[in-house]
Design brief:
Helix 2 (22-25) links the parallel strand 1 (14-16) and strand 2 (34-36). This protein has helices spanning 2-6, 22-25, 46-54, 72-80, 100-109, 126-134, 155-164, and strands spanning 14-16, 34-36, 43-45, 60-61, 67-70, 83-84, 90-93, 97-99, 114-115, 121-124, 138-139, 145-148, 169-170. With 171 residues, the protein is α/β, with parallel strands linked by helices. A 5-stranded parallel β-sheet has the order 3-5-7-9-11. The chain has a 4-stranded parallel β-sheet with strand order 8-10-12-13. The model has no long low-confidence stretch (mean pLDDT 94). The N and C termini lie far apart (55 Å).
């Protein structure tokens, strides 16, 4: 209904959207309106949350969300702006290659478990990679290739990293 209403005006619409299902909310095609939106769907994708957030200039309430599936980049963007009520959901990543620092940022954004089981390549500094492997909040790591960006590092740090994965470590 909102899309039809919005098509009839060029002005900003201020409204409360009564629908709370993510599969309906992500169909709002207009952007830049002052919409009060609450997502009541427990399991959502990063693409759905991004689309919903793009529809409004106001923060989206997402307290009911318990699981987010999608890309690491979109997940970190979701946590950094436009939402209230997030911070304790499980996040299941779909990426195959991620930067360890970004993975650690996501781990810090939620107290829920971060499942990185699809990751086949981890990149970044030895410290960031070892931090990701040591985190109790990140699961699914242990057999990915690791490409480190350090220009110099301690042998002990490299040995720790090598012990964290059965994949190839490219130093």
């Amino acid at each position: 209904e909102f899309n039809a209403l919005s098509a009839r005006t060029t002005g900003n619409i201020t409204a409360t959207i009564s629908t709370t299902a993510a599969t309906t909310l992500d169909d709002i095609s207009e952007t830049g309106h002052s919409l009060t939106i609450t997502v009541a769907t427990a399991s959502v994708t990063t693409a759905q949350l991004t689309a919903i957030n793009n529809a409004t200039t106001l923060d989206v309430t997402a307290t009911a969300v318990t699981k987010i599936t999608g890309s690491l980049s979109e997940a970190n963007t979701i946590y950094s702006s436009g939402f209230t009520g997030l911070g304790n959901e499980a996040v299941i990543l779909s990426d195959t290659s991620v930067a360890a620092a970004d993975l650690n940022t996501l781990d810090g954004n939620t107290t829920g478990a971060v499942n990185a089981g699809t990751v086949t390549t981890l990149t970044g500094t030895t410290t960031a990679a070892n931090t990701a492997y040591a985190s109790s909040g990140i699961s699914g790591l242990a057999n990915e290739a690791v490409t480190i960006s350090d220009t110099s590092l301690a042998v002990a740090a490299l040995n720790t990293l090598d012990g964290n994965t059965t994949g190839t470590v490219n130093a």
